[in-house]
């Protein structure tokens, strides 16, 4: 299915700006976008899927994936996983929250937070599904063992330039990270608290630019939620807090990923402009440019709205 963003194409022709309108997916509600560029040259976005009626993230029971090769025309790659395919998941389904995806040695690993019990908030696990393709044929491969089930949301997997994979997760006030074994499903050693973050709440994302490691995350101030970041000279910190780089999106949550594609840097995030519910749990994914200062610090993002 091709989602043709005609208005964006007009913008492209008139202004020369190679960019979508925001939100750039309007066929279903989407949130928590994790963006990656894979070897086929396309940029893939792995979001969670908000479902009407908005009741507080409980109905979220499936995931779609989107891809592009020009940042204007987006392809809905279809549904890649739903709760009924996760044997260890809670029998009522739902609560499939912010995912991430990684690629190693010919396999794509899809990480998703999901509870295993009716009492959902005490039974979070980080599930893993695998496929040989980036957006289809994923099958459940279990979950990561040995994590803290009370705050086990928002997985992020970062693969360093030497090929070592790092796993991060956390919700509430603690963000933890550590190495993944080559099988990408087991933690290698122990996870450690990410030190130096100020006002951490959730939505960890790690990337590297010019030898600097960046950890971005959301704080917790209701509709004033912002994305903050810290930098380090290593993937596990200690982190130096650097401030806010994405202001409020007028939504009860904030969640983003930063990625380079075809020589430009982008921030993917969500707002609730499309649903305008006033609650922030019918969200839609957006994208804007990220700009860096000479010293590597990030300029405040200008949010494009329709
Ligand atoms: O989408 C469900 C949850 O809302 C995510 O896991 C959090 O990061 C917040 O965006």
TrEMBL record:
Assigned keywords, A-Z: Carbohydrate metabolism, Glycosidase, Hydrolase, Polysaccharide degradation, Signal, Xylan degradation
Keyword Nucleotide-binding: no
Signal peptide: 1-20
Keyword Glycoprotein: no
Similarity annotation: Belongs to the glycosyl hydrolase 43 family.
Record protein name field: Family 43 glycosylhydrolase
């Amino acid at each position: 299915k091709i989602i043709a963003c005609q208005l964006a194409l007009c913008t492209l022709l008139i202004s020369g700006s190679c960019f979508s309108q925001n939100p750039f997916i309007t066929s279903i509600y989407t949130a928590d976008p994790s963006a990656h560029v894979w070897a086929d040259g396309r940029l893939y976005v792995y979001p969670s899927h908000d479902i009407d009626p908005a009741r507080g993230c409980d109905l979220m029971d499936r995931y779609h994936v989107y891809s592009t090769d020009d940042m204007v025309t987006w392809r809905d790659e279809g549904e890649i996983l739903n709760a009924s395919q996760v044997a260890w998941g809670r029998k009522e389904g739902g609560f499939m929250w912010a995912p991430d995806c990684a690629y190693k040695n010919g396999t794509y690993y899809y990480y998703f937070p999901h509870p295993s019990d009716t009492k959902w908030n005490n039974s979070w696990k980080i599930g893993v599904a695998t496929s040989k393709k980036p957006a289809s044929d994923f099958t459940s491969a279990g979950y990561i063992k040995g994590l803290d089930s009370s705050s086990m949301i928002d997985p992020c997997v970062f693969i360093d330039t030497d090929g070592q994979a790092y796993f991060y997760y956390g919700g509430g006030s603690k963000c933890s990270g550590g190495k993944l074994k080559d099988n990408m499903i087991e933690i290698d050693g122990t996870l450690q608290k990410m030190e130096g973050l100020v006002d951490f709440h959730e939505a960890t994302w790690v990337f590297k630019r010019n030898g600097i490691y960046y950890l971005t995350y959301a704080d917790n101030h209701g509709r004033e939620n912002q994305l903050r970041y810290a930098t380090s000279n290593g993937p596990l910190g200690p982190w130096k807090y650097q401030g806010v780089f994405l202001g409020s999106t007028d939504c009860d949550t904030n969640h983003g990923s930063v990625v380079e594609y075809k020589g430009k840097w982008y921030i993917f995030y969500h707002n609730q402009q499309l649903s305008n519910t006033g609650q922030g749990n019918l969200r839609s994914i957006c994208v804007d440019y990220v700009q860096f200062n000479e010293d590597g610090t990030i300029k405040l993002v200008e949010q494009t709205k329709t």
